[in-house]
Amino acid sequence: MGMVIGLVALLVTIAAVIAAAGHAGYLAMLTSAAKKRPGGQPAVEFAKKRYPVAGVGLGVTLLALVISSGGVGADVFATLLALGGGAGSLKALGTTQSRFRKGQF
């Protein structure tokens, strides 16, 4: 039973890290593209304001990945931590995308 919980914890934490890294990567690409365009400075400033959110999400999910290498109790805690961090990162990514598409920066 412990092996199954460990496997589930590993899969959930990896998915959460990918989601958090996706948000950080999106901001990095947005910044890079905006720096190359004339008049792109407002988009760069917008992305810079969102970096702390992406960093915290990535940090929480990486912490969950490290914790998931423990016993059953640690795996359950890591799964909950990863679910929270991953869900928060996905919500932040959606908010970032919608605000950027609407030009609210």
Strand/helix succession:
HHH
Helix count, DSSP H or I runs of 4 or more residues: 3
Distance between the termini: 49 Å
Beta-strand share of residues: under 5%
The low-confidence parts are none
What labels describe this entry?
elongated; mainly alpha; 0% strand
Q: Which helices and strands, and how do they pair?
A:
Blueprint: H1 2-36, H2 41-67, H3 72-102
Helix pairs in contact: 1-2, 1-3, 2-3
Structure, explained:
With 105 residues, the chain is an all-alpha fold. It is 89% helix and 0% strand. The protein starts with a helix and ends with a helix.
Question: What would you say about this model in short?
Answer:
With 105 residues, the chain is mainly alpha-helical. The protein has three helices and no strands.
